[in-house]
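Deliverable D4.2, example record:
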Amino acid sequence: MAITRQVIASLHPDGSNLLGTKGLAVRIADESIVSGSLLTVETNEFAIVKSRGAVLNCYETGQYALTTPDKPLFGSIAKGFFGGTSPWVFEIIYVNRSKLLLRSQGVATSAEMAEMAYTVDYYVHVDTQEQALALITHMPFNGNTIDTKEVADYAGPAIEQSINQIVQVTKMERINEKIQQIREAVKAHLTEFLSAYGILLNDLKVLIVPRDERMRELISLQALGLTPEQAIRYYLALRMAEKGLVSAPNAATGAPFHIGGQPAGFYQLDRDTGLAAAPALEPPVVDGEGPEARSARP
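Output generated by the structure prediction step:
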């Protein structure tokens, strides 16, 4: 806040704005703001003047002299006896008109009860004086500011409900096929919800992915054209390769792995599943004798 020679503005002495890129509204209450003070309103904001709980006026871009009106826009003012003068104390609320970016995150469950993490990024702005008044009327102040995080917290349940209506009846591997339908449902519900606060929704983006990292990698492997069984083998091979195990390629192809030139087992690929089956090994024969003949020798 900058108050010099009774000039009220939303700019700091260094030129930065009180609202910034995260503030939707900011309130300035100071006893030095009296009738006759000059109110400066920047091009990216509205200024609402209140006194004793009543809205006196809403200003657009320009500079105005604060005066005591005969009638407030909203509310009522109780008059008292102050020796013929009224000690008006003004409260200034600046409302941001710029487009602001908000983000809401949460978890939904698919038809298989698998957890899906979603992220919704969307742009909002306040367009008219009436919407600015609706904002400060219906959205409570947390201290002296209303920021984008508070608006996102309010909108979170509405977004979650819209997403769950579709995701809960859709199998996990088919959710991305319905991402456009989910986006339109979220946009319609969110537009209606934010309008009560005087906030306009411009555009939004919806991203939904499996919450479990392993599940995301398996689905990515299946997207390459692998079967579920092949995707599991390749996932195992990737993890083995990260550990530096030389048998990682064998795990990917289902081929046997030999140690010291001798086979660790006789493997045969199953044509139906593509997996390698390892039957029990027969006892080795040494010098033409089996283990029973050797144990019978004195």
